[in-house]
Amino acid sequence: MTLTLVGTPDEGASPFDAIRHEDADGEYWLGRELQPLMDYSRWARFETVIKKAKASLALVHGASAAEAAFVQVNQIAHAGNLGEQERCDYRLSRFGAYLTAMAGDDTKLAVAHARVYFAIRTREAEARQMLEAARPLPELREPTTYPLVDVRVLLRQNFGVNVAVSDLTRVLRQGAVLRQDGRPAADYSHLFWLKKNGTYEVFEHAVEPIYRLYESTKLRLEMAAQRALPMDPPGWPELPLGGES
Question: Is the pTM above the cut of 0.70?
Answer without folding.
Answer: no
